[in-house]
Amino acid sequence: MSLKQKHSRKIIRFLLKLGIIYLVVIVLMAIFQRELMYFPWNSGRTPADMGLDNTEILTLTASDHIQLTAWHRPPASGYPLIIYFHGNGGDISFRGPKLTAFAESGFGFLILSYRGFGSSEGTPTEQGLYLDAQAAITYATQTLGYQPSQLMLYGESLGTGIAVEMATHHPVGAVILEAPYTSVTNRAAEIYYWAPVRWLIRDHYDSLSKITRINAPLLLFHGENDALIPIQHGKTLFEAAHQPKQAHFIPNTGHDDFDAALLVQHLQDFARNHQLIKSPTGGS
């Protein structure tokens, strides 16, 4: 065998090994993709631990019988209720500063711990989280007695896809999106550009295909320094949405470092402009 043939065989063996390693990585990504997407936590902290008074811990039941934990604090007179859909990591208590800002400004909140997060049962999937969100809206309207027009759906990061999905089915008062993506599939394809993500992914959260079906007023926040979900995702989603809509692209802000007081100030202005905050006598 010539030296050239030996060299060629070495190259072929190397490429075969490389191909096998690539296929193993792809298979592992396909199997464990939800472990790469969801990062649940259970801190065990209560509303009292977060300094939140007048806040009750609820147990909700999704339509597939999964038991879910949620926190509810009623709004001040004339204020709407924020139904909050959090991101893909941590638990309810991680949103303590924002919940405090809501409460101090008069907004009520119902924040849901998705299946597998906090003390909620189950394992997270896209369809499962939609069932969880539906359980929260159903509880707010049928048990707590809120009108749909009194509800503001607030999605944070992963939760923006859930808020968008729910808003296509419910005539709510407003939709708030913080650091949204066009779809999880699109963002995953950007991150794992070397893998056939679009063929493998199971949980898509395709907000861009749904955003035109939302008729509620839309408020969108995105940090200009967001490295996890680049700001172009928020801008693309905002451009596709119908009026009325408003966006704040915030300088010197990353994915997780929004100023809660600033967000709530914008939220109050937006709610007043759309007559979601009313005086005790019923005026705007």
Radius of gyration: 22 Å
If you average the pLDDT, what whole number results? Answer: 94
Given this structure, which CATH class is correct?
Answer: Alpha Beta
- Report the span from N to C terminus: 90 Å
- Poorly predicted residue ranges: none
* CATH architecture classification: 3-Layer(aba) Sandwich
Helices, by number, come to 9
Largest sheet: number of strands, sense, barrel closure: 8 strands, mixed
Strand adjacency order, main sheet: 2-3-6-4-7-8-9-10
Query: Can you give the helix content as a percent range?
Result: 25-40%
Q: Provide the number of structural domains.
A: 1
| CATH topology descriptor | Rossmann fold
- SSE arrangement, N to C: HHEEEEEHEHEHEHHEHEH
Name a few traits of the molecule.
two-stranded parallel sheet; 8-stranded mixed beta sheet; alpha/beta; Rossmann fold; elongated; 284 residues
